[in-house]
Design brief:
Blueprint (H helix, E strand, L loop, with lengths): L4 H8 L16 H10 L5 H6 L11 H7 L4 E6 L1 H5 L4 E7 L7 H17 L5 E5 L1 H5 L1
């Protein structure tokens, strides 16, 4: 049985587009985000930069979406906020470096789902669960 009836309904009604991406090692957050959003293969310097993330200036899907007038939200790992500081309509970033229990961050992401699904003022929402990324 499908555990995502709202999402599947949006996909079936052609109100959403499914997008699957696969990121391969390194397993550090910044290079993976960069690979997914730009389509580039991360380099060694991206791993080093993970500890001091700067704004991403390369061509990427989020910059194109905002340039096209799309509204984007993000909840989860604060690396997204460092890479895209002026991008998100609503956001709640949580540091992953000092969290001993990834559930703390994941619960913070989950608490935003219901209100965001009820809101009608966004085109894309990014939910970055650390339990999937760090466990």
């Amino acid at each position: 049985e499908n555990g995502f009836p709202f999402t599947m309904g949006k996909l079936a009604g052609r109100e959403a587009v499914g997008f699957t991406t696969r990121a391969h090692p390194p397993t550090v957050t910044l290079p993976r985000i960069k690979a997914m959003i730009t389509g580039d293969i991360p380099g060694f310097l991206d791993i080093v930069a993970n500890f001091d993330s700067k704004q991403l200036r390369e061509d990427n899907i989020l910059s194109r979406a905002t340039a096209a007038g799309r509204t984007i939200n993000m909840f989860g790992d604060e690396t997204w906020l460092k890479l895209f500081p002026e991008t998100f309509h609503r956001s709640d970033g949580t540091t992953a470096f000092y969290v001993m229990d990834t559930r703390i961050v994941d619960d913070n992401v989950t608490r935003h789902i219901e209100p965001e699904l009820e809101a009608q003022d966004w085109d894309m929402t990014i939910l970055h669960y650390l339990g999937l990324d760090h466990a």
